[in-house]
Design a protein that fits this description.
- The chain is of the alpha/beta class and 410 residues long.
- The protein is 21% helix and 23% strand.
- A hairpin with a 2-residue loop joins β14 (343-347) and β15.
- The longest helix is centred in the C-terminal third of the chain and has 19 residues, at 307-325.
- The model is unreliable at 184-192, 219-227 and 327-337 (pLDDT under 50).
Length: 410
């Protein structure tokens, strides 16, 4: 399976079913009595986090998703069936964006967010029966479901992120720390996708997850090399290990890593500098590096030297971070409340009314039915929309637009 960490989808909630116009022919009831049921609500599109996936590949070539529409209402007050929801399963750690805003951060299995709600079903004629209107011969139309484009972005969740220049030994260290068996080679860019490993020791109350992040190069934050694409995964690690090749130029490598992390806004991340490949050094060079990097563990992922001690150090640092944060790892969500008011604007010699309340009235009205049109006009008056138009200067005969419907004001 390919590692895909970003996908765009057009999602569409199902349309609500129409209400039913029906009369029950019973004795002593005017025209048999209205008994038209309401339409079923449309289905919704829901994104759910699961541990069964590690990539967004299922959505790489799927560009549009539609939920089921609601069934129409029927006679004898029978409501239509609700439309079927569509569940989009995504890996844990997926961010959901819409219109450039973060809608949900799905950081735990089972986290979910509705990205396109289904439209409400229309009421049947039974709902409009009153003491003065005992035989209404109209019903409401079902509303269309929400439609929007969303962007899914996967950011691998890990406790520890291994960051280093190509060939620093990150994959080898992941294999030495955990049971993961990443592809390892002595050439640059062996790691092309983030890989996870679980570090579990008997002495640990809980295991922790280590991510092998593809190698950064100088200029990665500006889009060069592979590193820029995976800086997003570094951002989700609680603790970074800056892994340096001790047999090369560790001082220069650390400067490059810190510069790229700083350019990506990640300079404040807790980090430990670790010197790898010390098995290739003589004692004199080891002592020199111990002076230059006094607090940095010296290890060899190839021979296992210092790996157990490093695992213990990482666990200790993670527990310190947990105690400081109080274990509070919150999910951040941006909610955009729907504006439900009414706005009237003078446009091209007429008037345009906007707002969810007015637009829903237009969508629910059956314009082929004279009784439904009369009901629409009553609703304009009862809900204060007619008064708002008159305050704006509208006179009988003026053209009024609500949604895609244009009519003359009476």
């Amino acid at each position: 399976m390919q590692f895909i960490d970003e996908a765009r989808l057009l999602v569409q909630g199902g349309r609500g079913g129409d209400g039913c116009v029906s009369f029950n022919r019973e004795k002593y009831r005017p025209r048999g009595g209205p008994d038209g049921g309401r339409g079923g609500d449309g289905g919704s599109v829901i994104v759910v986090a699961t541990e069964d996936l590690s990539t967004l590949e299922p959505y790489a070539y799927r560009h549009e998703v539609k939920a089921g529409r609601g069934r129409h209402g029927q006679g004898s007050n029978r409501a239509g069936e609700r439309g079927e929801d569509v569940i989009l399963e995504v890996p844990v750690g997926t961010l959901v964006y819409s219109d450039g805003e973060l809608v949900a951060d799905l950081e735990k299995p089972g986290d979910r967010v509705t990205v396109a709600r289904g439209g409400a079903g229309g009421r049947g004629n039974e709902s409009f029966a009153t003491s003065t209107r005992q035989a209404p011969a109209f019903a409401e139309k079902g509303l269309p479901g929400e439609r929007r484009e969303i962007r899914l972005e996967l950011r691998v969740l890990s406790d520890v992120g291994l960051v280093g220049l190509p060939n620093a030994g990150k994959s080898s260290l992941l294999a030495a720390l955990s049971a993961a068996r990443p592809k390892v080679g002595d050439y640059p860019f062996t790691t092309l996708t983030p890989r996870l490993g679980v570090v579990d020791r008997r002495a640990y109350r809980e295991p922790f997850v280590v991510a092998d992040i593809p190698g950064l190069i100088e200029g990665a934050s500006e889009g060069r090399g592979l590193g820029n694409r995976f800086l997003r995964h570094v951002a989700r690690s609680r603790l970074l290990v800056l892994l340096l090749d001790a047999s090369g130029d560790p001082e220069g490598a650390e400067a490059v890593l810190r510069a790229e992390l700083g350019a990506a806004g990640l300079a404040g991340k807790p980090a430990i500098v670790v010197l790898n490949k010390v098995d290739l050094l003589d004692e004199e060079l080891r002592e020199y590096l111990g002076q230059v990097f006094p607090d940095s563990p010296q290890i060899s992922a190839a021979t296992g030297e210092g790996v157990e001690e490093l695992a213990d150090l990482l666990k200790e640092r993670l527990e310190e971070l947990e105690s400081v944060s109080g274990g509070d790892r919150k999910t951040h969500r941006t909610f955009r409340p729907t504006w439900k008011g009414v706005r009237v604007e003078a446009v091209n010699g007429g008037y345009r009314v906007s707002g969810e309340l007015a637009e829903r009235l237009v969508l629910k009205t059956d314009w082929e039915n004279p009784e439904a049109v009369e009901h629409f006009q009553r609703e304009l008056r009862n809900r204060g929309i007619l008064a708002a138009l008159r305050r704006a200067g509208a006179q009988p005969g003026d053209e009024v637009q609500i949604g895609d419907r244009v009519f003359d004001l009476r």
